[in-house]
Amino acid sequence: MSYTGPDFEPPRPRRSARRRTLTVVLAALVPGALLGWGVYAAAGGSGDGAGRTAPGPSVSAPAATGDDAKEPAAGASPPAAASASAPAVPGPLTGKVVVVDPGHNPGNARYPDEIGRTVDVGTHHKECDTTGTSTDAGYSEAAFTLDVAHRLRDLLVRQGATVRLTQDGDRPYGPCVDERARIGNEARTDAAVSIHADGSAAGNRGFHVILPGAVHAGAADTRAIAGPSRDLGERIAGRFVRVTGSAPAGYVGGGTGLVTRTDLGGLNLSKVPKVFIECGNMRDGQDAALLTSGAWRQKAAQGISEGIVSFLRG
Ligand SMILES: [Zn+2]
């Protein structure tokens, strides 16, 4: 996601709502590279193991139903297939459903009219989707998000969860942000996370988790999920710090790694606990070196997975 894109307006500086449940993890608990600064991290359970596993059996989910809020795009709409991976073996997350939303779509740039049309996100109208950002060398955010989503899916399936992706490179563009939210809502999801990487100015580094602010307008009503989503986001931020060694972003969120937004359709329309994570800044050379590393992306997925596991297990 790029702050310059229409789906991502510059966040307002966060001033209110001190972290309620965060605990400070002393620098001694994190790798040596992080010494010298403390970070906020969620309290709670242990990790869920390292390493990738083969994905569980994939099944085709029913195509999403029509979007009442959307104006028909010119031409035919693409199929709205959300793939689901059922667990191969029972685990601590048996019975839990997680929706993983890989931000953007590698094909979006080829469909400017389709992704540029507006959809109703309750509080306002905004573009269906955006192209996302990329590193200077051309590694796209969409490729990054899909790769991390696959790694995250595999880790969660290994824990027994049923995981549904909002897109899996199986559609020409999108889905639109409202559909991304609806897939989570329809899947009776226990937790949802949207994967992104930022497109901020070079020199801005680090990750941040975006939490839904409480909104109530039109089809948007996040009042019931704002609290649980904050819990989810705090746990993901804490685990992400611990596993990746990356620092919370220094350019948003006041160094907490947490930012609350009320302008994102994918959050505003969610009826289930959901957060976004900007894993790093693709426009910064040092962050880009991490984001383009498969080993680092595995750590990123691991950190996100551990946060979700902590949230789901309470
Ligand atoms: Zn993005």
Write the layout of secondary structure elements.
Blueprint: E1 22-25, E2 39-42, E3 58-60, E4 83-85, E5 97-102, H1 112-116, E6 118-120, E7 125-127, H2 141-158, E8 162-165, H3 177-186, E9 191-198, E10 208-212, E11 216-217, E12 220-221, H4 226-244, E13 258-261, H5 265-268, E14 274-281, H6 285-291, H7 294-313
Parallel strand pairs: 5-8, 5-9, 9-14, 10-13
Antiparallel strand pairs: 1-2, 3-4, 4-8, 6-7, 10-14, 11-12
Bound molecules: zinc ion.
3D architecture notes:
The structure is a single chain. With 314 residues, the protein is an alpha/beta fold. The chain has a single domain, classed as 3-Layer(aba) Sandwich (Aminopeptidase). The protein is 26% helix and 19% strand. The protein has seven helices and 14 strands. The strands form four sheets. Strands 3-4-8-5-9-14-10-13 form an eight-stranded mixed sheet, sandwiched between helices. Strand 11 and strand 12 form a beta hairpin. Helix 2 packs across helix 7. The protein is globular. The N terminus is likely disordered. It binds zinc ion.
